[in-house]
Design brief:
Largest sheet of chain B: 2 strands, antiparallel
Strand order of the largest sheet of chain B: 1-2
Shape of chain A: globular
Oligomer: heterodimer
Number of strands of chain A: 24
CATH architecture of one domain in chain A: 3-Layer(aba) Sandwich
Strand content of chain A: 25-35%
Number of strands of chain B: 2
Helix content of chain B: over 70%
Radius of gyration of chain B: 20 Å
CATH class of one domain in chain A: Alpha Beta
CATH topology of one domain in chain A: Rossmann fold
Distance between the termini of chain A: 46 Å
CATH class of chain B: Mainly Alpha
CATH architecture of chain B: Orthogonal Bundle
Order of helices and strands of chain B: HHHHHHHEHHHHEHHH
Radius of gyration of chain A: 25 Å
Helix content of chain A: 25-40%
Strand order of the largest sheet of chain A: 6-9-10-3-11-12
Chain lengths: 503, 331
């Protein structure tokens, strides 16, 4: 680690009178990877937006390379050497890779014409430097998300950045892409660039960061050296209390619990020959790496994607599921990993979302019976402890955890027997997480059955009664909770096709 | 490195097709097909005069379409261009008829009015963040009303080619009847194609149409460039006004409604996506020529002009379908 290149001190910021940052502070050295942690709403993004000139601070001081600075636009910050790789990739899909890289600072010919040949050559050079193989003439939209992110990083580097901010960079990456990313980050570090790393993934901190700064409720909590601190310590700093995350010790499913759902030889796209059974009152965990085909399996089962082959049996009877309507009619509810896109109509109210799948049961002739809808929604708000000012609140104003509860409420109103939770706690802060867990346990106690897809092994181990492991579109293993361990799951999750036949 | 050799081997024709675009190729072939069809179906269609009338019908729609292409690329829409075209021409004509301004000055005034309303639209959309559909719908009504107010609902006559002040008509038709307007249209189209593809304003307009927030975060002044797209649209509506005045001598206040839809249809047929981020001036011109060839050609096979609407509608739906299918394939 080199000398201090960035110091943010006493930063205040409020929005419409509501304080988002209170005396926040942050320090970065050159050649350091410094994690910024905190629950959602802790103020990480706001602090970074102040640093990059998107927001203006109300008070405090930012000292960059020895000078006190105020940036009024992202461009100013960029020119000064502060670049950000955004969580939602900021790409122009219709432009080429090179055009994306040099947007806003194109090389010009004769003063007025953009010189694409020159920017393409510069892009090639840059990619060579980073050891990544991307065609600068390719349209951005044709690249995978991982590759697009590489371009974003290249963009940050090409702007001669001295500080690069990564906002949840691995959220959409595959395992191998993550490895590639970490290699690039280490290279950047060796070049003396300071890196601010925002992530929710604890295991990544150990792998890549030097120091961790934790924020809570817009305030600075503390900074620790990664290698001298434990995961629990950091979590404790984030939540201000100890989180108990012990794995489940034994299955809670009764030995004679009937099978409610059986899937035989399901094929869909690259998903091949997946079979499993789900018992009454069971949480069946689906573990695996990103891209293992778990979501695809769930979507095919739910009728959202076409099933190429296989059978679905509910209570031992063969059923045909071709559309989500079929699935819902058969008592299956699906809670997507991407709530905002597939789970909720975020501009609508809590009540409208809750009743969305069941509205035909609450009709007076052709008119919606709003009164009974409201009573019903209110009972679920109470039961699920959804924090909302009223049933008429727009869902977009709720926190991630409460939005997830609204989706759960939607399927409970529908009286779904089988619930598929796809990454139930993604983007949800630690406190709300345990509430969702408690809720899931309550549901299975009441006789619902749950399929839970999760990429977080601690979550799988804490919640599941049984675990199905997938890899590359196939089921590679099945473990009871008693025999499961992180190591065993990872073993099956990394099995290749030819190996799984032997296991 | 395996991939690198693969790229080098990417055949030249594929590269050409990527840069020209599948849709433009289809539209071009469709234009040829339509022209050949009329030529076979009707002997009199195969004349130089018919070609000239196709050109005549292309000028004002063509100018509007070139301008509004830029707005549509930003992901917006400009509904005011039809009435703005007539409004600018009415104002210019009134200055000439009633106030006796020399025609040169009148034409400059026409341009100024077009640019002014373009700027107004641009500011409403980029600074005030009004939805472009609503903002320009408002301007559409304002300009239509303004034309009537200024002319006191009287029609306006532009000087004829034989008049002293009729020199401006040679921009569109030379004294020996050569359709100079087509040259003007093509020259402006080439210039605007270069502006779109080879200059910063064009690059930023494409970029912000593809992803406004990303472009903003890249340090590009999106407010300025988005506004510029509407200014271009307004300016070209004024050029369309001049073209209209030069092609048809008498202008009635209260007309111009619906011109914008012809222009927008041409743009969309030419492959510019209403979702923004994709578009070309060449495609727009092809789209406009399809419109004007249909307009001029249909009477030759004994179909009344209102069939043009019917058939253009079908062509438009087909074009949008191709666009939607292509973009779905891309994602």
């Amino acid at each position: 680690m080199g000398e201090v290149i960035l110091q943010m001190r006493g930063i205040d910021k409020s929005f419409a009178g509501v304080p988002a940052l209170k005396k926040a502070q942050f320090e970065l050295r050159s050649g350091e990877v410094h994690a910024l942690m905190g629950e959602n709403g802790a103020g990480k993004s706001t602090l970074m937006k102040i640093l990059t000139g998107i927001y203006r601070r109300d008070a405090g001081e930012v000292i960059f390379a020895g000078k006190s600075v105020v940036y009024t636009s992202p461009r100013e910050a960029q020119e000064a050497g502060i670049a950000m790789v955004h969580q939602e990739l900021n790409m122009m899909h219709h432009l080429t890779v090179a055009q994306n890289l040099f947007i806003g600072r194109e090389t010009m010919k004769l003063g007025i014409f953009t010189d694409d040949a020159d920017t393409e050559a510069k892009a090639s050079e840059l990619f060579q430097l980073l050891n990544i193989d991307i065609d600068p003439e390719e349209l951005m939209g044709n690249l995978t998300v991982g590759r697009q992110q590489m371009v974003e990083i290249a963009k940050a580097i090409s702007s001669k950045a001295r500080i690069i901010i990564f906002d949840e960079p691995t959220a959409a990456l595959t395992e191998s892409e993550t490895k590639e990313l970490f290699k690039i980050i280490r290279d950047l570090k060796a070049k003396g660039i300071g890196i601010i790393y925002i992530s929710h993934r604890m295991d990544e901190l150990k792998a890549i960061t030097d120091r961790v700064t934790v924020m809570r409720d817009g305030e600075y909590v503390g900074t620790v050296i990664t290698r001298d601190s434990t995961k629990d310590e950091i979590i404790r700093m984030m939540v201000g209390r100890t989180v108990f995350e012990a794995p489940k010790e034994k299955s809670n499913v009764k030995a004679d619990a009937p099978v409610v759902l059986e899937v035989r030889g399901l094929c869909a796209g690259f998903v091949k020959d997946v079979s499993f059974a789900l018992h009454k009152g069971e949480i069946l965990g689906f573990a695996g790496l990103m891209g293992a085909g778990r979501t695809e399996t769930a979507r095919a089962l739910f009728g959202a994607d076409k099933m190429d082959g296989g059978q679905i049996l509910i209570h031992g009877k063969k059923v045909e599921i071709h559309t989500p309507q079929d699935a819902v009619a058969n008592g299956i509810g699906y809670l997507s990993e991407d709530r905002k896109r597939y789970g909720l109509v975020v501009q609508k109210t809590v009540q409208e979302n809750t009743m969305l799948a069941t509205i035909e049961k609450y009709m007076h002739g052709i008119l919606v019976d709003d009164a009974s809808c409201e009573t019903e929604t209110e009972s679920y708000i109470k039961r699920l402890r959804i924090k909302t000012p009223s049933v008429q609140e727009e869902v977009s104003h709720l926190s991630g955890g409460n939005q997830q509860k609204v989706v759960i409420a939607k399927w409970l109103v529908r009286d779904s027997e089988i619930l598929i939770f796809d990454e139930p706690t993604r983007g949800i802060d630690v406190g709300a997480k345990s509430e969702i867990y408690a809720l899931m346990n309550e549901l299975v106690e009441k006789g619902k059955s749950i399929i839970m897809i999760s990429s977080e092994l601690p979550e799988i181990l804490r919640m599941s009664d049984r675990i199905v492991v997938m890899s590359e579109g196939r089921k590679t293993g099945e473990l009871s909770i008693e025999e499961a361990s992180q190591e065993k799951i990872m073993h099956y999750a990394t099995l290749r096709e030819h190996e799984s036949a032997a296991s | 490195m395996e991939k690198g050799t693969q790229q080098a081997a990417r055949p030249a024709w594929k590269k050409l097709l990527q840069s020209v675009g599948m849709q433009k190729l289809i539209v071009f072939l469709a234009l040829i097909a339509i022209y050949v069809f009329f030529s076979i179906a009707s002997e009199p269609f195969r004349s130089k005069e018919t070609l000239v009338s196709i050109f005549d019908a292309s000028y004002y729609i063509g100018f509007m379409a070139i301008g509004v292409t830029f707005v549509i690329i930003t992901g917006g829409i400009d509904l005011s261009i039809g009435t703005l075209t007539i409004c600018t021409a009415l104002i210019g004509g009134t200055l000439h008829d009633t106030y006796g301004w020399p025609i040169g000055l009148c034409l400059l005034a026409v341009l100024a009015v077009g640019l002014f309303f373009g700027l107004l639209n641009g500011l409403m959309v980029s600074v005030l963040r009004l939805p472009s559909f609503i903002a320009t719908l408002g301007t559409m009504m304002v300009t239509r009303g303004l034309g009537s107010i200024i002319t006191k609902t009287q029609s306006v006559t532009y000087p004829l080619a034989s008049d002293v002040d009729g020199w401006y008509r040679t921009f569109f038709r030379s004294p020996d009847n050569f359709p100079t307007g087509i040259v003007l249209l093509l020259v402006l189209a080439v210039i605007m194609a270069i502006v779109l593809n080879k200059t910063r304003p064009g690059r930023y307009i494409l970029s912000l149409g593809s992803n406004r927030e990303a472009t903003r975060l890249s340090g590009v002044n999106v407010v300025k460039w988005e506004c510029l797209a509407y200014v271009i649209s307004g300016g070209f509506a004024a050029l369309a006004g001049i073209a209209y005045a030069a092609t048809y001598s008498t202008l009635m206040p209260g007309t111009g409604n619906g011109f914008e839809l012809d222009a927008i249809a041409g743009v969309v047929i030419g492959g510019t996506s209403l979702a923004g981020g994709v578009g070309s001036v060449a495609g727009t011109l092809l789209g406009v020529f399809i419109m004007s060839t249909l307009k001029v050609g249909l009477p030759f096979i004994d179909l009344q002009p209102h069939y043009q609407l019917f058939i253009t509608g079908l062509v438009l739906i087909a074009a949008v379908y191709i666009d939607v299918r292509n973009s779905r394939k891309r994602t």
